[in-house]
Amino acid sequence: MDFDLSETDLAWRETAREWVDKNYPKSKARELEASGTTFPQELWNDLSEAGFHGVGIPEEYGGQGGDIFAQAIAARELSRNLAGLVATWLAPAVGGTLTLLAAATEEQKHELLPRMARGELVFAIAITEPGGGTDLLGALRTSSRLDGDEWVLNGQKMWSTGAGNADYLVVLAANVADDGSIAGNNLILVPSSSPGLDMRHIPKLGVRALASYEVFLDEVRVPAGNIVGPRGQGWKGIVQGLNVDKVLLSACSTGVLDGVLEDSQRYLHEREAFGRTIEHFQALQHKVVEIAAWRHTSELVSQHAAWMLARGRPVAAEATMAKMIASEYAVQAADVGLQLLGGMGYSTETDMQRYWRDARLWRIAPITGEMSRNFIAEQLGMPRSY
Amino acid sequence: MTESATAQVHGAWDLSEDQLAIRQAVEEGMRKFGLDYWREVDKAGEFPAEFFSFAAAQGWLGIAMPPEHGGAGLGISEAVMMMEAIARGGGLSAASAVHMNVFSTNVVVKHGSDEMRQETLPGVIGGQTRVAFGVSEPDSGLDTSSLRTRAVREGDNWRINGRKVWISTAQVAEKILLLTRSREAEPGRSKADGLTLFFTDLDRDRITVNEIDKTGRAAVDSNELFIDDLVVPDRHRVGEEGRGFKLLLDGLNPERLLVASEAIGIGRAALQQAVDYAKQRTVFDRVIGQNQGVQFPLADSYARLESTWLTVLRGASLYDRGIDCGAEANIAKLLGGEYGFEAADRAMQTLGGYGYAKDYHVERMWREVKLCRIAPVSPELILSYLAEHKLGLPKSY
């Protein structure tokens, strides 16, 4: 037991960090947010060129290889400057790549994964519905029925991030059996250009340069071969990715903590008041140190969960705790950081407000802090309360 | 990826076999001393002598001591496992009863003469000798180097006069580690210069020991000491004259890790009491643990204790490999103290009136773990330390 990163891990972290600092300094993330764009195409292209989309895709499918631990390192370094725009990389990596790896046929994998690794294919997840977030299956209304050699989809999806620029939406829909009854659910790849598919942009607090959408499906027809995994068992393709998602978001939160900490320290070092730099004031120092302690803790819980997951261990409790702890610390830290920077923290000319707005999402999605606590309470042997 | 391949790619994140074996052995040992035992010694304010002898017989006192003197020769990575399990089983009364023997004499191991080591360590490890740690003074807590107890050289001896405060186990200890000022620091030199450390008999003819009545941990006494013309032979000096404080600095980080593990152990014990209670106490026709308002604080404390525990393990691993662990040790002590106390406080809230009642143990844990937030260093000064030494901010105190 030493909790050390290996040479490989350290080298990858260094590479990722250098790439991010060179190509996507924080100023560029701010510009993207101010640009009014709904999809950061240039960021996507640059990530493709640098090979980020191939991390986590095995070499036999044209990727760079690497496991969840390597992905978590990428997630943290990208988030340090990009904050919530990390989702440009993360959402397809988890929703697309992982789902395919978990449930697709060999033929689908060989056809789609190499193109995804090169960044030629963009996936967006369309799973959540207006009436169902955490209680997704209980609220699933979108339906899919087989008509000859085509799936016909009807329904409505919420919070499909990046859908506006995606080639495919990964849609979860109730499986309508031949007798008209509902028998499980299907995971279906729906081309975004399909007739009958419509979208509405949902304006939001943070991550503005990567728009999220409400998606309407009205008699949308796709080839029968677009189903991922066995009919009626679509959920199985997603469920394996839930822990991965939590672990990666804990890494993203740690990246935000990195950014908040360094920006706070720099500001305290430069800003003068009462004849000296404000870093001399004990009350402010203590706030910065608390951020450093939260960052330290988040780093360890995140890496520990990633390590267990990479080894194939059961990790539901650890992943949930890592996501909960790190996301809450990140928001708390950004709030303290905003206070430290005062008016400048509130200004969109600095990054603190961006961290503050973006990280706030991770206390909500993909699972709220409250649901996390429900889950942990059950791990402690207390009765289910929801 | 296979287990071994992952280990090669990402390092080792599992507890070692030694660590697992120690935790299991200590948990088993602690079961011989149930919560009622700890309630009774707390109520009576009696040193848990039976437990202390048991710990010595089990070899716990010498866990991190060299094998040539009868110790197990293990590191802080193993000692934190042991102290966490001891504190989880018996609270701070249990942990503090052995803490000084386990930890404080490390400075003797490292810097004592061969003669001193051979003469004293077997007794410390075997439990025949209990050790008190005499550093703090009425006007010198964290600002240790300002201490005033004087040691004056007289031929082969030293004559010591002064006062010490917050000296644990001095009611029962046979030996004391005593930090004194043997000469004034030279102008321009650090105040830490000129402090000399002794490991000597706690001679009750020359040292008056007055117990301090306090909120918690009554079984392990805390005392004020009045030292009046204590004559100590020079061979009881530890390390060089004038360098005593620097020798103790080596031990600060491991001590913080041990205290953090004790705070986490108590927090976990309190949490267990709360969970057990929440699962069986019925109100409005269902167990109270079904209420999210009851569950969430407990789940939250669980997550915080688990995550802080990782910092303890990480710091211990660094220390055992000779790598600086100042950040980890201080963060672990800071967060361990806060979250350990928070867990006990939430447990008290969960048990309601019973949490406040002595029969149910939680109030004792609450009183005890509070001390982990204060000693050996306050959270406020940890923040100042980290600001200065780990973030490079100016000294603010």
Automatic annotation (TrEMBL), chain A:
UniProt domain Acyl-CoA dehydrogenase/oxidase N-terminal: residue ranges: 7-120
Domain Acyl-CoA oxidase/dehydrogenase middle: from-to ranges: 124-220
Pfam families to which the protein is assigned, alphabetical: Acyl-CoA_dh_1, Acyl-CoA_dh_M, Acyl-CoA_dh_N
Protein keywords: FAD, Flavoprotein, Oxidoreductase
SUPFAM superfamilies: Acyl-CoA dehydrogenase C-terminal domain-like, Acyl-CoA dehydrogenase NM domain-like
InterPro entries registered for this protein in UniProt: Acyl-CoA_DH_CS (IPR006089), Acyl-CoA_Oxase/DH_mid-dom (IPR006091), Acyl-CoA_Oxase/DH_mid-dom_sf (IPR046373), AcylCo_DH-like_C (IPR036250), AcylCo_DH/oxidase_C (IPR009075), AcylCoA_DH/ox_N (IPR013786), AcylCoA_DH/ox_N_sf (IPR037069), AcylCoA_DH/oxidase_NM_dom_sf (IPR009100)
Family designation: Belongs to the acyl-CoA dehydrogenase family.
The protein, known as: Acyl-CoA dehydrogenase
Provenance organism: Haloechinothrix alba
UniProtKB/TrEMBL annotation, chain B:
Domain named Acyl-CoA dehydrogenase/oxidase N-terminal: residues: 16-127
Ranges for domain Acyl-CoA oxidase/dehydrogenase middle: 132-229
Keywords carried by this UniProt record: FAD, Flavoprotein, Oxidoreductase
A Pfam family hit: Acyl-CoA_dh_1
A GO term for molecular function: flavin adenine dinucleotide binding
Signal peptide: none
Cofactor(s) demanded: FAD
Domain Acyl-CoA dehydrogenase/oxidase C-terminal: from-to ranges: 242-375
Family the UniProt entry places it in: Belongs to the acyl-CoA dehydrogenase family.
Protein name, as recorded: Acyl-CoA dehydrogenase
Organism per entry: Haloechinothrix alba
